[in-house]
Amino acid sequence: MADLSINLACIKSPNPFWLASAPPTNSGYQVQRAFEAGWGGAVWKTLGEPIINTSSRFAAVSFNGQRVAGFNNIELITDRPLEVNLKEIYETKKRFPNHAIIASLMVEPQQDKWHEIVKKVEAVGVDGLELNFGCPHGMAERGMGAASGQVPALVEKQTFWVKEVAQTPVIVKLTPNITDITVTAEAAVQGGADAISMINTINSLAGVDIHSWNTIPHVAGKGAHGGYCGPAVKPIALHMVGECARNPRVNIPISGIGGISNWENAIEFMLMGATGVQVCTAAMHHGFRIVEDMIEGLNNYLDEKGIASVSEIVGKAVPKYSDWGDLDLNYKVVARINNDVCINCNKCHIACEDTSHQCIDMLKDGKGNSILRVREEDCVGCNLCSIVCPVDGAIDLVELPNEFPPMTWNERQAAIGALGCAVDTVK
Amino acid sequence: MSLIRISYEDLSRNFEEVEAGLSNREALEEANRCLYCYDAPCIQACPTGIDVPTFIKKIASGNLKGSAKTIMSANPVGASCSRVCPTEELCEGACVLNHATKPIMIGNLQRYATDWAMKNEKILFSVGEKIGKSVAIVGGGPAGLSAARELALLGYDVTIFEAEEKAGGLNTYGIVSFRLPKAVSYWEVEQVASMDVEIRTNTRVGRDISVKEILDSYDAVLLAIGMAHVPALGIPGEELAGVFDAIEFVKETKTKPITDALLGKKVAVIGAGNTAIDAATCSVRLGAENVKILYRRTLEEMTAYDFEYDFAKQDGVEFRWLTAPNKIIGHEGKVVGIECMKMELGEPREDGRRRPVPIKGSEFTLEVDAVIKAIGQSRYLDLIEAFEIEHDGGVVTINPETFQTTNAKVFACGDVIFGKGQGEAMVVSAAQQGKKSAYSIHQLLMPTMETV
């Protein structure tokens, strides 16, 4: 059994799986059920002025009959009084002292308001604070949430105000609705944040009902943009985590959020620099019980790799994540089709023929059986064939021996510069 | 599939379609499982070349009208075929997922899409621009309907001469309703009729209208008359009450109120083709206490599809292999038993099938109340002769490329050309032959127009 416990900026939890600040962490009843199911921590649904929510609120995107490929919400922060939440946080922490409870907070960008709420929540025994600078709808229209998170100076200033009084670690939750997330991450660092978490939801409109022409969801026939999350946003989130993790000026731990649905996703985020992960949509889709497989799968993975502690994998893939200009232009892979495994659906052929480099031929072997073959001299190693192939092991991408030594674009440009060559060598 | 529950109180319930169609969710899941292969083998395996991945993709996208149209444009009797095709030998047998997981339920998806069109009363095709040529089609079964639809699309004035009260042929009258409800066949007929195809029912060519008149009045004629009644067994006792022709027997269950005449009775069915299975399973559903199929050869030589055989066994039908009838025994003009002989298989004959040889002294008698003959079908020899075209024992001679008979303006397809090593027995093959015949007629009458 590997050690699954984590220590994220001095917030300790028995495993890296936290529930994100969201509908699943709206009440003591829910968080306690989650802890019973095995979740290591929970970021309590954002506390602030009790506000009114709309009905309806959620929508999801199905893909090829699969539900909840992506998830969209227009729900705002807690709609329960602060006192009720604080009482339930206290009770929950008392019952589960070893589980992490982080209070998500959002108030108007005023020093006294931040001071007041920080003191109140720390008084009931939270393990940390998470500043919600990410909520993209509703609260943003009142100058909070993403409206704060999109202005680096506000991120820095509000973080600073919190840190003036906070006794517990402060995590700043960042919005992805910005051009370069490392800018706001740096602002959080400047403000004194102990950690950052990302990503909050992405501005979205889940859909339009093609019959009624209403937005999805709609509130009495009107819609507004919401926040997008779930499996579909994972690549976006992973990119942002990676960008922060490899930025030397963002030198604080990261709590990874965004479409994490299983232990494999969690490992990816941790390899890319997250110390722990937060989950919401997967729990909303399937219930808290999914954490059992997350814990077991992670543990089995670590055991099979001979890794004693999950913290050992944090950031291990970060050095491999770089800029396009640092990629070896002389590296070459080509596709090879294993006709023993291939079931002849010809999807690779038509994908290549219509949309890539026309290098997969449909042929007959000596016995008249249909076979597919890659003309390797024309293959650019784009991967498309193996992406559309429905059968594992039918297409391999094989590395070809390198005729030239490795050379990146940056090296190439540097070499040209060193030669003082004025000729434009770019074809 | 579990053993069927036969209702003895309400026999007509037993004739409701056995297999439930896919639910919306089932269809969506299955449609999404389809890989949407390029140059898919299922298309090649379908005699009518239905673009299977395309119609399945359209189910997945919610374009059910488009899906039904894709199916029906390739196969004008595609709704019937979704129920009666031996899919495991055709499209589903060719599915690439046979090599990975399990094949897509193509037949059931085809039924789902066409059921939708039927339920929503969709007319899928419109008539082509009239070109002022006329074609007579003799016989409104799968082959004739299919040809009529294609010719109507091309702009021909098409008249179908149908001897029965309704068109549809085998699909309307010959396939048991619990497999193929006649409403499905009627819908297909309606699709063809909606294209200005005149369907003259209750009109037997040679009786109600002369062959000469047809030959003189139309620019081309298509003979799609199928096959006739079950021939005589050639044994004593065939005239007794309680001896039935399987084709007529099945037809009655589709055209007349279900009776309790066989309730609690013992039935022997002679033959082991798909019609024999139909007769046997109908008998079970009519409340017969015991139904035996007597076949002079063995399981190996049986011509019924495997799924039909399984279906009959699940219905509790008993199979007596290597058993041939000697004579039907009567009492006061009614069947009371059948005397049989055991057979053994001798040397193979020219057709490769081993000849059954009677075992001397093996006679035995089965007590039965009804005997149903299902030993194949005879031919409309007189009608074929009246067209003065070449044939071989009722199997009309054709150019296999064009379906043209020895009379240049007469074409033939479907069961009328099936036999003696020529043609195919499946409904789906008849449909394809109908299409091809239509294109050949078009080629003959309008050689300058583009072919389909």
TrEMBL record, chain A:
Pathway: Pyrimidine metabolism; UMP biosynthesis via de novo pathway
Keywords: Flavoprotein, FMN, Iron, Iron-sulfur, Metal-binding, Oxidoreductase
One cellular component (GO) term of this entry: cytoplasm
Stretches assigned to the 4Fe-4S ferredoxin-type domain: 333-365, 370-400
Annotated EC: 1.3.1.1, 1.3.98.1
Keyword Metal-binding assigned: yes
Cofactor(s) required, per the database record: FMN
Catalytic activity: 5,6-dihydrouracil + NAD(+) = uracil + NADH + H(+); (S)-dihydroorotate + fumarate = orotate + succinate; 5,6-dihydrothymine + NAD(+) = thymine + NADH + H(+)
GO molecular function, one term: dihydroorotate dehydrogenase (fumarate) activity
Family recorded in the similarity comment: Belongs to the dihydroorotate dehydrogenase family. Type 1 subfamily. Belongs to the dihydropyrimidine dehydrogenase family.
Subunit structure and binding partners: Homodimer.
Function: Involved in pyrimidine base degradation. Catalyzes physiologically the reduction of uracil to 5,6-dihydrouracil (DHU) by using NADH as a specific cosubstrate. It also catalyzes the reverse reaction and the reduction of thymine to 5,6-dihydrothymine (DHT).
Record's protein name: Dihydrothymine dehydrogenase
Organism: Robertmurraya kyonggiensis
Gene: preA
UniProtKB/TrEMBL annotation, chain B:
Every 4Fe-4S ferredoxin-type domain range: 24-58
Pfam families in alphabetical order: Fer4_20 (PF14691), Pyr_redox_2 (PF07992)
Entry GO MF terms: iron-sulfur cluster binding; oxidoreductase activity
Cited Gene3D superfamilies: Alpha-helical ferredoxin (1.10.1060.10), FAD/NAD(P)-binding domain (3.50.50.60), NAD(P)-binding Rossmann-like Domain (3.40.50.720)
UniProt protein name: NAD(P)-dependent oxidoreductase
Originating organism: Robertmurraya kyonggiensis
